[in-house]
Amino acid sequence: MEMQRSILAKAKHACAKLSSVYNKGSMIKLSERQVISTKNQPPFDVFISYRGTDTRRTIAGLLYDHLSHVGQLRPFLDYKSLSPGDNIMDKISAAVKTCRVGLPVFSPRYCESYYCLYELALMYRTSKCIVPIFCDMKPSQLRVPSDRSSTLQCFAWALDEAKETVGLSFDSTNGDWSELLTNASDAVRKMLEGSE
Questions:
Q1: What are the domain boundaries of the chain?
Q2: CA-CA distance, 125 to 155, in Å (whole number)?
Q3: Active site residue: 119, 161, 164, 179, which one?
Q4: What pTM, to 2 d.p., does this model score?
Q5: Confidence band for 192, pLDDT divided at 50, 70 and 90
Q6: 3-state class of 66 per DSSP?
Q7: In 3D, which of 44, 127, 53 has the Cα closest to residue 92?
Q8: What is the rounded distance in angstroms from the CA atom of residue 99 to the CA atom of residue 82?
Q9: Inter-axis angle of helices 88-98 and 114-125, to 10 degrees?
Q10: CB-based contact 74:46 (threshold 8 Å)
């Protein structure tokens, strides 16, 4: 009983603190600041497209960290690059359109995701340099599952393009993670240097 009262008191204190901080004037200032910082934000160098259930906490996150810290690049990775209140589709579309290199991380469930296929198609439509990474799959396995809706079928052409693009292959069970990160970073740098 004592513990419940303590937790309830802490929760009420936190709510009161938040209420005093988020008055109407400060919310307007925050919104204006967010708009200004978004407009002044430089475009991303690399857009990482991935299926969260397969690779969010492994290859996608490691690529983001490696590219930003070791490679000193500006990668976009949704869960690290989006802020509360952002419109997901608007921010993702803008990031794809302004990036210079697309880095789709193909994994076994990538082709089941509308968002992944949308990002891939947008990369090809906007003529980005693309470095595909085939994680635990082969390029020949890229296809929209036959039991999926026709909504996904409209992206089949983008998967066909990806099959024809030379990429990096990686086996997450037996592969050398350090080598993959280095090879991906080198490939992205080479693409960036070639697009200048």
A1: 1-40, 44-194
A2: 11
A3: 119
A4: 0.77
A5: very high
A6: helix
A7: 44
A8: 15
A9: 30
A10: yes
Quote the tokens at residue 86: 């952002």
Return the sign of the alpha-carbon dihedral for residues 183, 178, 135, 139.
positive
60 and 105 Cβ atoms separated by less than 8 Å: yes
In tens, the pLDDT along 69-104 reads 987 999 999 999 999 999 999 999 999 999 999 999
Tokens, residue 23: 């008055």
For 68, 111, 114, 144, 182, the CA distances from 141, given in Å and listed in that order, are 30, 10, 17, 9, 25
- For the chain, report the end-to-end CA distance as a whole number of angstroms: 66
Residue 74 phi, psi (nearest 5)? -110, 85
Q: Residue 91 to residues 151, 152, 177: CA-CA distances in angstroms?
A: 21, 21, 29
CATH superfamily of 44-194: Toll/interleukin-1 receptor homology (TIR) domain (3.40.50.10140)
Q: Can you read off the two tokens belonging to residue 155?
A: 């992206």
Q: Output the six-digit token pair for 36.
A: 């200004």
In 44-172, which ranges are E strands? 46-50, 75-76, 101-106, 129-130, 133-135, 168-170
Catalytic residue at 119? yes
